[in-house]
Amino acid sequence: MFRASVLLSFVSFALALSASDLQVSVKAVSSSVRSIEDIILTAVVTNPTESEVRITSADNILDDANTESFAVSKDGERVVFAGVRMTANLELDTNWVTLPAGASLAVNHTVSQLYDFESHGTGKFTFKPSASFVSDITKVPVTVDVESVTVEVTEDVTFRPLFTRDEVPAGARQSTVNCGDGNRAQILRDSLADARARAGGAAYDIRANPNSVAWNRYFGGANHNDVWWRFDMIAGDLASSGVRQIYCNQDPAGICNRASAYVLLYLSGGAITSSDVYICDSFYNFPNTRDVCGWDINNLGYTKAGVMLHELSHATAATTDVYYCGPVQSLSPAEKFNNADNYQCMAHHIYRQYNC
Ligand SMILES: *[C@@H]1O[C@H](CO)[C@@H](O)[C@H](O)[C@H]1NC(C)=O
């Protein structure tokens, strides 16, 4: 029944992926290691069906960049992710893989530079794989059930930063555009100013219209004050949200062939102390905020300011990535609160409603 109605409603006639269309397993090469450097986790994704499937390999267990492929915990406490928060550009083929019928794909993960193990000391760490896959960008990702893996680390949990951090220039504001290309620097400064204004508009509306359509779509069930605070941190560029540089023309993680932008968080005692933003070439192709006025309010897309706001929500609140304004409306209240695009989508909705 469900499938038949899906078929009728899509011109592409692509069958929606379901959780049973994929099998995922994760194994630790060794379940007890001396150092976090010796942890190797092997993920295998299998297509057990009789037709090929095309799925995203971004922000999940198939992603071999330094992104968050696992939720890590120790004694029930979350171990903070300290790697790359990538905003994948799903329009690029580099973020997709095709698995032929019956085929498997294996990816090895090393994790020593990606999580703040040090704050938790030696002992047993649990790795819950991120087994969410998009096959259709108009739908929420399909999540496959996978068992967590536990690895004991007996001696060395010392934090190893992924990249050496640049000195913060004297007198730096909380968010500072750092870009030698005058043209791009101006676009980034404009996008930053606009992102802050859009966040301010959304924060204002949460207080003025706590039961608005925009609220219910993008944050329904979440706590108004908590969401307000996250928008306000971005709008006010508050010192409590850390100091960051916004770079153009730099790609230390080597992922600009797949990303629109990304964020590297730096942690001290579990708190975000800085969170530099790296803007990739494809960012500059996003439209200007004014273009939102020509869009259907029920089908909002991305803008430069919106993607900047999305990055700032990674940078200030370590948010996650389920993409596009349609699918993010189906998340649970807790997931909405923690997902970057929900902030971008609500801000665009409010702009479309009052500024056009
Ligand atoms: C993963 O690492 C293990 C241990 O080093 C190795 O035997 C295996 O071939 C690797 N697999 C892949 C897919 O790289």
From TrEMBL:
Pfam families: Aspzincin_M35. Residues 1-16 form the signal peptide. SUPFAM superfamilies: Metalloproteases ('zincins'), catalytic domain. GO terms for molecular function: metal ion binding; metalloendopeptidase activity. Its cofactor is Zn(2+). GO terms for biological process: proteolysis. InterPro entries: Fungal_M35_metalloproteases, Lys_MEP, MetalloPept_cat_dom_sf. Keywords: Hydrolase, Metal-binding, Metalloprotease, Protease, Signal, Zinc. Residues 211-345 form the Lysine-specific metallo-endopeptidase domain. Belongs to the peptidase M35 family. This is Lysine-specific metallo-endopeptidase domain-containing protein. It comes from Pterulicium gracile.
